[in-house]
Every structure is written in structure tokens, then in C-alpha cells.
Target: Glutamine amidotransferase domain-containing protein
Amino acid sequence: MNTTRTLTFQWTGWSLGISIVVVLVTAAYCYAAWRRSGYQRTFGLLELLRLLLVIFAAVMFNQPEYIEEFLPDEKPSVVVLWDDSRSMETRDVKNAGQSGDALTTRRDAIAPLTESAAWHKLHERIDVVLQPFSTPESSGSNLYQPLNDVMEKQTNLLGVVFASDGDWNEGPPPVQAATRMRLKEVPIFAVPVGSSIPLPDVELLSLDAPTFGVAGKSVRIPFSINSSLPRDHVATVTMRTSDGEELQKEVNVKAMGRTSDWIIWKPEKIGDYQLTVNVPTHHDESLTDNNELSAPISIREEKLRVLVVESYPRWEYRYLRNALSRDPGVEVSCLLFHPGLSKVGGGNRDYIKEFPDGLDELSKYDVVFLGDVGLDDGQLTVEQCRLLKGLVEHQASGLVFMPGFYGRQFSLLETELDALYPVVLDEAQPGGWGSRTPSHFELTELGRRSLLTKLADTREDNIEVWSGLPGFQWHAPVLRARAGTDVLSVHESETNKNGRVPLLVTRTYGAGKVLFMGTDGAWRWRKGVEDKYHYRFWGQVVRWMAYQRNMAKGESMRLYYSPDQPQIDQTVMFNANVMEKSGEPLTKGDVVARITSPSGKLETVRFVSAGDEWGAFAGRFTTAEPGQHEMVLSCKQTGTTLETSFFVQGVANERAGRPARPEVLDELARVTRGKVIAAGKIDDVMNSLAALPDPPASVRRVQLWSHPIPAACLIALFGVFWVGRKAAGLI
Model:
């Protein structure tokens, strides 16, 4: 490093003239004062000090600056940054060396810029550094980071050549790094590559298979197709299972948009399956490697535990009990209070004699149905209502409210269950509303899409089934649905000042789900069709409410997470219930999850205890890769572990076939006062770099006129002058 040092003044003609006049006048005055003193030595020294003070002030008045210039000994450098991400594999660049419509990949189009021999003309004056960024294995493209790293690592930077398609999906906006380069006068020579017009393509965008299903029960496998073709077309989508089963469905794929549909699959055997969905290649599409996706699913033979609590054995209760007891996947327990009678329960083996005692007994139930019961007549207690609330909130169980015309549900609103109730009831009409003529359900738009109300395979058939179901002649006194709830069905004609009366309402509370059924006439759905719709509906209710709770469970640990079908870059909320060896919930402990991503990256998630009586622990994890993630949950205090897995839906952010974004590179060049140069014109890049002047020297300026040290010296001289005059008797 060569260093030169100079002293300069920011003077003008007026400031210099004034300074000279002031110094000359002061010199004349000092001489006259010394002569009057008889040329005494003490007075002479004082007047000389006075003159020095004025000269010092005159020099500072002309703004002196001490300047150091640092010139580097090595040659200036140019960094060639080239994009090596997966999007550069897109074949959409016109090849100048071939005739016809031959296209080449974006990576091949910038290949001449990535070879060291191509820059030999600049080697005498400039050091050229070739540096790729965002490898094909990367999950995304970060254009900000390479530009920022160049600014940090290169000390004698002349310019940057930046070759990319501009498709960035990670990190801060690259223009922020360009702004820093503008301040340091480092231009960017942008080399955009690729077409900004989407290629004709049909892409299977997502396959949202559920985490698990139940043997013998139909499973809906949703998928989404994205098309950039100019016309609609019909495609036969095929789904294959790992055991060789194949299902097909014709889908009308919309032009220049997204199409969502699903395939219904009924697995017969338990086990772990791999589902593969394929969209046939269209003859006009350019990309054929994104038409297939796979996802895992676990098929189980579940034994869901359901508790039904009722007062009188009304018809709704009797048929509900029959539907649940005949379901091979459900183990039902019934509790009848029989108001007015001394005994509790019934004669069937499904009945229990009393409400489950303690947390360890109650926590075994996945779903609880509360019929026309309340706090009166020796039924539920305030403590039992508190336990039911905790079961839903902390252990992801489901709770179904099924009120009756006795109106006992109003007493539940005086307990902690009030926070769970999805609707507001009319206290002026505790017995509800009855009618001579049957009324019917009417699905809302949300209800038409819900799996809970799906009684037919297609949406049109489902609406027809619901409109044709036998009617009911009583409904609960509902005023409106509460905020944060989902209304799936309303009364076909009954209204109040809040609109249609809600009849089927759901909500999420804590980790669990709540359902409100506003009539007691669902048992009538069996008319003429027997169990076809009645059993299907309540079976779907139980499995929907218990789904999250049964994602993964062991003898003393249970894990569930939300959302159950996480996407890339989405935060997954994990909830775990941990029990001690005695069966009691663990109130405090060290619960840790180790998650292994598809690439082999290992991350640790530490769960935080809620510190309550439910053994609830919570943690969070942000997904970064699609695919199967293996997870091991462990507790130090109990010494138990739970091994499970979850699947992250979607495809990587960085993929081939996406349109180029040349406007991003245009902005980088404009901000830094560089240029945009076509990929095939490497000579233009050379000439532009050769025309750049050497980087300016690093300059360090010290403004002496405003620096604290000269100011301190001036003050010190004034102090000496004042002390001298004091000593000479002049003050």
C-alpha cells in the first residue's frame, strides 16, 4: 500500500486577505506595545505570544486539512458472479449458433462467461475472479448474499459482472446490496438470461395427502395442477399406490391457471403406503419432469374411544349409540343420568356407571358427546366441566354439543365450557323451537367444501343429498354463531336479526375441535336408506375430531401438530402430551424433538411446558425442504421416546421452468450506474470493463480547523498568555 500525505487549505481570496491584514496589524500593535515598555524582555515575550495566537487563529480561519491517500499495490479486481441454481436448467434461450427453433439452457447460454480463458485480455491490468452462487442442490436463489459478500471480501473492487435469470426467492432484495455498491462507486454489469414469458407447461403443483387414514374408510387425496397452456384440456390423472393399486380421474385443466381436484381412495389393508399421482404429458408442453409427485400415508386400524353423555335416551341418542357401536373403528362408552331415577347407566355393555374419575381416565377419550345434560339433577359438576375443557384445549380431543328441548345446555354456559360453545343461545326460549312441518338443512359455501358434510362423492351430488334428507321438527334456540367459528349449515328458512339460524357450527379451541349440532332429528336420515347417510355422517364427525390427536402416539406420549399438511417455509406448531409411568400427566420436564430433513440436516426443537395438570408441551419448527421428515420425541424424566414422521407438501422454491426476471438485473445495473449486456456479447463486457478507470485511492481527511486537538492547543496558549500578563502585573 502506497501512502502520500499532504496539508491543504480551503482558503479563498477574501479569507487569505483578511488573515494577512489581521496578522500585519497585530504585528504592528505588538511592536508598538513592546517599544512603550522600554523593550523589556518579559513584555516582548508576551507580545510575541499574542502574535502567535493571532497567526494560529488566522491559519485555522483558512480551514487546514491533513490528507492521507492510500493507493493499493495490487491490481484492481473484477468479480464475475454467475447463477448456478436449478432454474438455470430451463431451456428457453435462443441459440445464436443454430438455425430454426433450437433452444438451449440458461446455464449453457452464460457458459462462456464462466471460463477463465475468456478473460485473458484483462489479465494484464485486472484480476478476474470467477465465482458461482446458488448451487443446483440449493433450496432457493439468494441474489443479495453474493453481492454483499463481494463487498465484504474484495478491497480493490473495480466492478462486478452478474449473470443470472433474476429469479430470486430467498434473502433480502438484491437492490439493497446494489445500493451499497453505488455508495462505493462499484458498477454492476448485468447479464440477464432466459425468457420472461412462461413456457407452455402442465405442472402437478401439490399433492396434499393426509398423514394417515383408516382401513376400510375412504380417503380424499387432493391435488393441484398449474397450467400455462393457452387452452383448456381434459387430462386423465392417475394415482398409483405402492402395492400396485391404480385409480384414475378425468380432470378439466384450466388454461393459464390452477386447477384443484381430488381422488377418493378406499384402502383395505393397514400399512405404510407411497402414493404417486401423475398428470399425462401434453403434446404442447416444454417441461415434462414436473408432472408427477409422491407422498406417504399411513393406513391404520384405529380404535377411537368415544364417550356419549346423555340424560334421557331420546331417539337421537339411541341411533347415535347404535351408529358408533357398530363402527368397527370406534369403541363407545355411554353414560345415562336418567333424571328422576336413582340408578345411572343402562344394561348394555357399552354403558358406564359414572363419569370418568380423574385425568388419567378422562384423557383416554378421543371424542365426547354432550347431549341434553347440564349441572342440575345431579348430572355434570363444575369440576367435570373444567376437565372437559382441558381435555379439548390441551389434549386435542373433540367435543360435540347436542342440546335438547329440556334446555339443560344453558347451565353449561355458567361453567368453563362457555368458552368452547360455538353459538350464542336465546335465553328467552330455553326449550328451543318446534314445528308441525319438517324443516331442512342448507349447506353454506364452507359446508359444501367441508369433508365433515360430505355425504356423496361429488359436490353436486352432495348438495342434492343434503336437500333431500328427511327434515327435522325441532331446533335449538340459536341467535348467532360466535366469532372465530365455521358455520357449515343453516336453517333453510328460519331467520332472525342476525340472519339464517346456524345449525351445524364448528370451531377450534386450543389443540382440539368443537362441534355444535342444532337439531335432534339426524336419526331421521335413515328413512328409506337405513344407515347410508346417518352412519357416514357421525363416523366422519368422530374421525375428523380425533384426527389430530391420533397423528402419533405411544404408551406414554402423544404428538400432534398443526397444520397437519405443512408447506415449505411454514411454521409447524407441535403439541405433545407426556405421561409419567404411573399414568399421571407430567407437569414439568425436558421434552426434545430431533428432526431429520430429507437432505440429512438435523435440527433440535425444545418443547416448552405449559406447567399445568395436563402434561402439555409445545414447540415450533419452520420447514425449509419438501419431503419426508423423520422425528424422534424424547423425555428425559420418563426415559421414553416416540418415533414418527411428517411430510412437508409442495415443491422446492427453486425449480426449472419458471419465467426469468430480467427487470431485477435491470434495476441492479441502473442503481449502480452499470450496464445491461446481452449474454452472447462477451466482447461488449470486456470493452466495458477495460474502459473503467482504476478505483480511486482511499482518502483519510483530518479537518484541523474543527479538530479538538488544535482547539485544545489554542485554549492552552490563551491560558499561558493570561497567566503571563497576570505575572507581569498587567491584570
User: Anything to note?
Assistant: The chain has a mean pLDDT of 85. Residues 3-71+700-728 form one domain.
